[in-house]
Design goal:
By secondary structure, the chain is α/β, with parallel strands linked by helices. The protein has two domains: 3-161, NAD(P)-binding Rossmann-like Domain (Rossmann fold), CATH 3.40.50.720; 169-269, Orthogonal Bundle (ProC C-terminal domain-like fold), CATH 1.10.3730.10. It has helices spanning 10-22, 37-47, 55-61, 71-80, 82-88, 101-108, 142-153, 166-193, 198-219, 223-230, 236-246, 249-269, and strands at residues 3-6, 30-33, 50-51, 64-67, 91-94, 116-120, 130-136, 156-160. The longest helix has 28 residues, at 166-193. The radius of gyration is 21 Å and the shape is elongated. Bound molecules: 1,4-dihydronicotinamide adenine dinucleotide and (2S)-3,4-dihydro-2H-pyrrole-2-carboxylic acid. Residues 6-12, 33-36, 39, 55, 68-71, 73, 77, 95-97, 120-123, 174 line the site of 1,4-dihydronicotinamide adenine dinucleotide (NAI).
Length: 270
């Protein structure tokens, strides 16, 4: 199978490096195109993938096309490549936030049965610890869907998810790595305040958060049970925990997630 990427930005780079490192496909099976020629050539050389000079040539060359471009350019890209899409009939995989499969199909303005799969991945696919939600539009067959699921299982965890839940997933797993990085950076920054070098403090905070996530996933314990295990009576943790809650830590995080969901829905409706 040949996989093409339209757009070689942050997310495409993370997916490509992840699936090549894991051996899901070889670099020779990957074709790239980006309007930023320098970026295109640089990624292609770095990973050993092929690159082409137009989105049309890319679609002609591959079986699966990942639309790794911003939501506001997808309509234009589908329209400029429409005739090639309609003759080649590749599987289109969109990773764009706030862009439902119905809208993507409408952009093609056709009755031809083009298979479209929607994926909401996250950037942690780069290190094989991604999270991706996947749903297929009307004309996707099981074999095509299975291929996409396997592609994202190669670089993390993948769920088949009803499309109506995509906004929620985008907030919980697509955008949330940024919030987790912020949390880690905030802990590290506090370390710097107390005299630790930033790099060491960041490593310490990241390792603590990495282990905490694994504890939840591997023990299957409720996070509150684990919180209680860390909070020694009269100890340090409970003092810090209550200080965080005085500043409405839980409500602040929930507000961030609410706002992310609302923004995704706003993009859906555009
Ligand atoms: N960054 C992230 O963590 C995640 C991003 N996404 C989605 O992935 C998509 C891409 O996001 P990023 O990689 O962050 O953006 P980015 O801005 O890093 O990459 C987009 C790339 O598309 C290229 N491009 C623009 N117009 C083009 C055209 N007409 N033909 C070919 N290439 C073109 C740009 O030059 C750029 O390199 C977005 O739709 C976003 O919603 C989804 C999940 C996570
Ligand atoms: O910020 C965004 O719109 C994209 C979608 C999920 C993560 N980044």
């Amino acid at each position: 199978m040949k996989i093409g990427f339209i757009g070689t930005g942050n997310m495409a780079t993370a997916i490509i490096k992840g699936i090549v490192a894991n051996g899901f496909v070889s670099a020779e099976q990957i074709y790239l195109m980006d309007i930023d020629h320098e970026k295109l050539v640089s990624l292609s050389e770095e990973v050993g993938a092929n690159f082409v000079n137009s989105n049309r040539s890319l679609i002609e060359a591959v079986d699966f096309v990942v639309l790794a471009i911003k939501p506001n350019v997808i309509e234009h890209v589908l329209q400029e490549t429409k005739d090639v899409i309609l003759t080649k009939k590749p599987v289109l995989i969109s990773i764009a936030a706030g862009t439902p499969t119905d809208k993507l199909y409408r952009y093609l303005d056709t009755d031809v049965e083009i298979p479209i799969v929607r994926v909401m991945p996250n950037v942690n696919v780069l290190v094989g610890k991604g999270a991706a939600a996947i749903c297929g539009h009307d004309f996707v067959n099981q074999e095509q869907l299975d291929f996409v699921v396997k592609m994202f299982e190669a670089v993390g965890k993948a769920w088949i998810l009803a499309e109506e839940d995509f906004s929620n997933f985008t907030a919980l797993a697509g955008s949330s790595p940024a919030y987790a990085y912020l949390f880690i950076d905030s802990i590290a920054r506090a370390g710097v305040k107390h005299g630790l070098p930033k790099q060491v403090a960041t490593e310490m905070a990241a390792q603590a958060v990495l282990g905490s996530a694994e504890m939840i996933l591997k023990t299957g314990e409720n996070p509150w049970t684990l919180i209680d295990q860390v909070c020694s009576p009269g100890g340090t943790t409970v003092a810090g925990l209550l200080a965080l809650e005085e500043e409405a830590f839980i409500s602040t995080v929930v507000k961030g997630i609410d706002t992310t969901i609302a923004r995704d829905k706003e993009l859906n409706d555009k």
